[in-house]
Give the backbone structure.
Amino acid sequence: MSHELTDAQQRLVDEVRDFADTVVAPAAYEYDTKRELPYEILAQMGEMGLFGLPFPREYGGQGRDYLDLCLAVEQLARVDQSIAVTLEAGVGLGAMPVWRSGTDAQKKEWIPMLARGEALAAFGLTEADAGSDAAGTRTTAVLDGGDWVIDGSKQFITNSGTRITRLVTVTAVTGESMRPDGSVRKELTAFLVPAGTPGLHVGPAYDKVGWHTSDTHPLVLDHVRVPEENLLGERGRGFASFIQTLDEGRVAFAALCTGAAQGCLEEAIRYAGTRRVFGRTIGENQHTQFTIARMQARAHAARLAYLDAAHRIVAGRPFKLEASLAKLIGSEAAMANARDASQIFGGYGFLNENPVARHYRDSKVLEVGEGTTEVQLMVIARELGLAGRP
């Protein structure tokens, strides 16, 4: 399979790269320090069509595909992971469940505003005792007349508290049944909960180690009533639908990881070529050369991994294994490159105004978000036929 970009894809990469370098990068430190989401930058991204890349034109999108979204996310992540994850989560986790599982009426109502970047949607799966473990879900939904009544809480929800957040998709337990072995099987169903619905409370923003510009909040659903038609997909298929979303999301997340690894590489190359010690640049030292060479190898491998998975999505081929491989390889590449770049910069790499310092803080969550490293290893092992073996 060739991973060479088409002319249209290369133009997209060039356009987003230029936008990242000239608009996003200069503002990154300021907004990171203020811990604010730059709405004017999001508005420009909306005008560029980035939030609508994988959606048809008749729904306000760009008529492109998931690979194009990944390419855009990578370029943004080079300079600011928070901005990149706002796009990745807004499209891959927020809008995509509506697109994949929604009715025609739901798509017509929500996709156009999400595709134009006028609104953001959040993905409400994770709870204190649930996420990777679906059986731990405690949020419930009970049908009462023509409404579903939802009670529970969610945590670590990206894009859930912005001033343009308009929708949260949530999973809830809608029933239970007994398995033959005596264990309880929970029936999980997904729902659309518009922002501002009575009983939907957005908690204070988390005080995070990194991703300071990204919006992340806990949610409480206290007797939230939504119409019966707000059911998303089939009853009892909520977790399966969200797992499909996560599988796709991991590919875009891997693209974000790749961008972070690439950003650290580019900063290290630049600094190594200008920083002089003992009469020569540090880039003339073999140890620095070898370190940067390994950084290049990691970024290259991460890019090939996510491109392979993204091509499979576009072609309609199975991609679960490749998605987990891409996420594993990419997150480890980002973390390792951030560490090495910070070391090359020395004391300057410890200053928050330096991009590599922000990458060092930001990159740790890449090994946790959208499925931890351990979850990816489990998925990979199972896809290799090793499930259940001692």
The domain at 240-383 is CATH 1.20.140.10 (Butyryl-CoA Dehydrogenase, subunit A; domain 3). The beta strands are 120-124, 140-144, 147-158, 165-178, 184-194, 200-202, 216-227, 231-232, 276-277, 280-281. The first strand starts at residue 120 and ends at 124.
